[in-house]
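User: Here's a protein and a ligand (glycine). What would the complex look like?
Assistant: Let me lay out the input and then the predicted complex.
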Amino acid sequence: MENPMKHYFLMAGITALAFLTGCDTKKGDDLVADNFEFADKQLRYALVAVDEARALESGESRERREKRGWGELTNPRNNEPDGSLNLVVSRDWTSGFFPGELWYMYEYTREPFWKEQADLHTRLIEREQWNGGTHDMGFKMYCSYGNGYRLTGDPVYKDILLQSARTLITRYKEGAGILRSWDHNTDKWDCPVIIDNMMNLELLFWAFNQTQDSVFYNIAVNHARTTLKNHFREDYSSYHVVDYDTLTGAVRTKATHQGYAHESAWARGQTWGLYGYTMCYRETGLPEFLEQAQQIGKFIFSHARLPADLIPYWDFDAPEIPDEPRDVSAATCTASALYELSTYVPGKGETYRRNADRILENITQHYRATLGEDNGFLLLHSTGSKPHDSEIDVPIVYADYYFLEALLRKDRLDRNEPLF
Ligand code: GLY
């Protein structure tokens, strides 16, 4: 049964917050400062909402718990259509984004409060360092422990990150030159690789930089090269899932899982590629990766169905455009990638930066959540997987994570400071 006192404290917290802030989503002239001011208040509220949702867990039936799988609920992922907050177990691919946001709050404010909260929520997913059953290690551990280590130098975080990288490379398939993404649907796929997997390579480059063990570097570069060869169409849009013969590396099928159709351009997939190849260029200096990132950017920004406000529909080929949900998460990740890309291409840097600025401005004006509501999420209108009727037009944690990351990058560029 729900604990009525918890509810009381939640409501008291919200009331106090509303009193302190006037429940005002004021948009200041300074985009970065205004958004961090908003995030500072909203994420404090999120912490209350998360505690409340965790408390509800104790009232769950045994049947529901067993269905959910092993482990305790950890961090928030999204709001459900009924407005309730969905927390996930640590193995969920999104479990590291909320701690990552808290680290970004610490990075911006340098307040011990955010450091303590970030550490607390990071440690909830420690066991994932041993989870070799998925490719999502980078999303989970680099966004949480990776940011934590960067900001604190805590050797415990470092050890956990190194073990995470070691676990991730157990998924490397030598014959195919690729890290396997998923283990499910073995009746359909042999060695499925999704474009999202580009994002997990950052953890491997980090491990190489720490250890000088070229195994990490070579696996990351091979994966990026194999993906470049097989995932992209002539117009530089990408397939979502490419299935390989594990032993020979022959491509078996090219398809979608979360997009509208096998031949469509799923919006978040395009941004995973843009961000992934930009990061690969940073870590390797290989021109092929820089070229790929630029071409993906060109595909996105010259697309006739990219809305004027630069927040894409969930799939560029969704059939009912303009009556299709947007995906703010694709936009925030794109903005973050563009800030980085702008530093590598002097001739086009200004354009990349201007587009990133426009994305952040439009999001601030039209896509922000309401202070003291929406379970503490920062942004509305993301889409997880429309074909699975899952997380459609709702707040999703990774949209918020890349939003804060993009704001920090903008802040550094505006101050003429290096990004890395
Ligand atoms: N990595 C899963 C997704 O982008 O939805």
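Summary: The chain has a mean pLDDT of 92.
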